[in-house]
Amino acid sequence: MINYTGQFLLSSPALNGTDFEEALLFIIEDNEKGSTGFIINKPFPRKLNELEEFKKSLPFPLYTGGPVATDSIFMLHRRPDIIEDGRKIAEGIFLGGNIQQAVAAINRQTITEADIKLFIGYCGWDAGQLQEEREEGSWITCTAVEPFSHYA
Fold first, then answer.
1. What is the pLDDT along the chain (152 residues), one digit of tens a residue?
2. Considering its fold, how many domains does the chain have in total?
3. Which domain holds residue 90?
4. Is residue 64 part of a domain?
5. CA 35, CA 5: separation in Å to the nearest integer?
6. Whether this model's pTM surpasses 0.90
7. Which of the residues 6, 24, 31, 44 has an alpha carbon 20 to 30 A from that of 149?
8. Which CATH number do you get for residue 89?
Protein backbone atom coordinates (compact mmCIF):
# COMPACT_ATOMS: atom_id res chain seq x y z
CA MET A 1 0.00 0.00 0.00
CA ILE A 2 1.29 3.45 -0.95
CA ASN A 3 1.65 6.01 1.84
CA TYR A 4 0.49 9.43 0.64
CA THR A 5 1.63 11.40 3.72
CA GLY A 6 3.33 14.60 2.56
CA GLN A 7 2.11 14.18 -1.02
CA PHE A 8 -0.13 16.33 -3.18
CA LEU A 9 -3.12 14.99 -5.06
CA LEU A 10 -5.11 16.77 -7.75
CA SER A 11 -8.73 15.85 -8.33
CA SER A 12 -9.55 14.36 -11.70
CA PRO A 13 -12.58 15.39 -13.79
CA ALA A 14 -14.36 12.37 -12.21
CA LEU A 15 -14.88 14.58 -9.13
CA ASN A 16 -16.44 17.52 -10.98
CA GLY A 17 -19.67 18.59 -9.33
CA THR A 18 -18.42 17.62 -5.85
CA ASP A 19 -16.66 19.48 -3.01
CA PHE A 20 -13.43 18.27 -4.60
CA GLU A 21 -13.85 19.77 -8.08
CA GLU A 22 -10.48 21.22 -9.15
CA ALA A 23 -9.12 20.52 -5.65
CA LEU A 24 -5.44 20.31 -4.84
CA LEU A 25 -4.91 18.27 -1.66
CA PHE A 26 -1.99 18.04 0.71
CA ILE A 27 -2.11 14.75 2.63
CA ILE A 28 -0.98 15.15 6.24
CA GLU A 29 -1.59 11.57 7.41
CA ASP A 30 -2.12 8.25 5.67
CA ASN A 31 -2.02 5.04 7.70
CA GLU A 32 -3.99 1.91 8.63
CA LYS A 33 -6.64 4.03 10.37
CA GLY A 34 -7.35 6.26 7.37
CA SER A 35 -6.18 9.43 5.66
CA THR A 36 -6.37 13.14 6.42
CA GLY A 37 -5.55 16.18 4.33
CA PHE A 38 -6.42 19.73 3.35
CA ILE A 39 -7.66 21.30 0.15
CA ILE A 40 -4.98 23.97 -0.29
CA ASN A 41 -6.29 25.92 -3.28
CA LYS A 42 -9.82 27.02 -2.28
CA PRO A 43 -10.10 30.34 -0.43
CA PHE A 44 -12.68 30.51 2.35
CA PRO A 45 -15.18 33.37 1.82
CA ARG A 46 -14.18 35.15 5.05
CA LYS A 47 -10.89 36.41 6.50
CA LEU A 48 -9.50 35.61 9.96
CA ASN A 49 -10.70 38.94 11.43
CA GLU A 50 -14.27 38.15 10.33
CA LEU A 51 -14.43 35.24 12.78
CA GLU A 52 -15.75 36.30 16.20
CA GLU A 53 -12.84 34.83 18.16
CA PHE A 54 -10.29 36.70 16.02
CA LYS A 55 -12.15 39.97 15.30
CA LYS A 56 -9.18 42.05 16.56
CA SER A 57 -6.79 40.31 14.17
CA LEU A 58 -5.55 41.46 10.80
CA PRO A 59 -7.57 40.36 7.74
CA PHE A 60 -5.55 37.22 7.02
CA PRO A 61 -6.79 34.74 4.36
CA LEU A 62 -8.45 31.47 5.30
CA TYR A 63 -8.85 28.40 3.11
CA THR A 64 -11.59 25.79 2.85
CA GLY A 65 -9.67 22.75 4.04
CA GLY A 66 -12.46 20.26 3.50
CA PRO A 67 -15.95 19.20 4.51
CA VAL A 68 -15.05 17.72 7.94
CA ALA A 69 -14.98 19.79 11.20
CA THR A 70 -15.91 23.05 9.47
CA ASP A 71 -16.30 24.72 12.86
CA SER A 72 -12.55 24.48 13.53
CA ILE A 73 -9.36 26.16 12.32
CA PHE A 74 -6.34 24.08 11.33
CA MET A 75 -2.93 25.31 10.23
CA LEU A 76 0.07 24.30 8.23
CA HIS A 77 3.23 26.33 8.71
CA ARG A 78 6.95 26.38 8.25
CA ARG A 79 7.85 28.39 11.36
CA PRO A 80 8.43 26.09 14.36
CA ASP A 81 10.71 28.84 15.64
CA ILE A 82 7.62 31.05 16.18
CA ILE A 83 4.80 28.50 16.61
CA GLU A 84 5.39 25.87 19.31
CA ASP A 85 3.99 22.35 19.44
CA GLY A 86 3.54 21.77 15.71
CA ARG A 87 4.02 18.26 14.30
CA LYS A 88 6.41 17.79 11.38
CA ILE A 89 4.55 16.41 8.35
CA ALA A 90 7.22 16.75 5.67
CA GLU A 91 10.53 18.56 5.30
CA GLY A 92 9.89 22.13 6.45
CA ILE A 93 6.12 21.67 6.88
CA PHE A 94 4.42 21.50 10.27
CA LEU A 95 0.83 20.84 11.30
CA GLY A 96 -0.86 22.74 14.10
CA GLY A 97 0.72 24.12 17.18
CA ASN A 98 -0.09 27.09 19.35
CA ILE A 99 -2.79 29.06 17.50
CA GLN A 100 -2.41 32.06 19.83
CA GLN A 101 1.28 32.32 18.92
CA ALA A 102 0.38 32.03 15.24
CA VAL A 103 -2.26 34.78 15.42
CA ALA A 104 0.09 37.03 17.40
CA ALA A 105 2.78 36.53 14.75
CA ILE A 106 0.26 37.29 11.99
CA ASN A 107 -0.76 40.49 13.79
CA ARG A 108 2.89 41.53 14.29
CA GLN A 109 3.46 40.64 10.62
CA THR A 110 6.43 38.46 11.59
CA ILE A 111 4.78 35.56 9.77
CA THR A 112 3.25 35.86 6.31
CA GLU A 113 1.17 33.87 3.83
CA ALA A 114 4.46 32.39 2.60
CA ASP A 115 4.89 30.77 6.04
CA ILE A 116 1.42 29.73 7.17
CA LYS A 117 -1.93 28.61 5.81
CA LEU A 118 -5.10 28.54 7.92
CA PHE A 119 -7.91 26.15 7.04
CA ILE A 120 -11.55 25.86 7.97
CA GLY A 121 -12.22 22.12 8.06
CA TYR A 122 -10.25 19.19 6.66
CA CYS A 123 -10.68 16.12 4.45
CA GLY A 124 -10.86 12.62 5.88
CA TRP A 125 -11.03 9.11 4.47
CA ASP A 126 -11.58 5.74 6.12
CA ALA A 127 -8.82 3.12 6.00
CA GLY A 128 -8.04 2.23 2.38
CA GLN A 129 -10.59 4.66 0.94
CA LEU A 130 -8.08 7.17 -0.46
CA GLN A 131 -6.07 4.35 -2.05
CA GLU A 132 -9.27 3.03 -3.67
CA GLU A 133 -10.19 6.48 -4.97
CA ARG A 134 -6.66 6.89 -6.34
CA GLU A 135 -6.84 3.51 -8.09
CA GLU A 136 -10.23 4.31 -9.65
CA GLY A 137 -8.79 7.54 -11.08
CA SER A 138 -10.34 10.19 -8.82
CA TRP A 139 -6.94 11.57 -7.76
CA ILE A 140 -3.73 12.28 -9.65
CA THR A 141 -0.41 12.46 -7.78
CA CYS A 142 1.34 15.81 -8.23
CA THR A 143 4.98 16.70 -7.80
CA ALA A 144 6.79 20.03 -7.46
CA VAL A 145 3.90 21.60 -5.57
CA GLU A 146 4.35 23.95 -2.62
CA PRO A 147 1.57 24.15 0.00
CA PHE A 148 2.11 27.83 0.79
CA SER A 149 1.79 29.06 -2.79
CA HIS A 150 -1.44 30.58 -4.02
CA TYR A 151 -3.23 28.37 -6.51
CA ALA A 152 -6.69 29.86 -6.35
1. 688 999 999 999 999 999 899 999 999 999 999 999 999 999 999 999 999 999 999 999 999 999 999 999 999 999 999 999 999 998 999 999 999 999 999 999 999 999 999 999 999 999 999 999 999 999 998 876 777 776 54
2. 1
3. 8-142
4. yes
5. 8
6. yes
7. 31
8. 3.40.1740.10
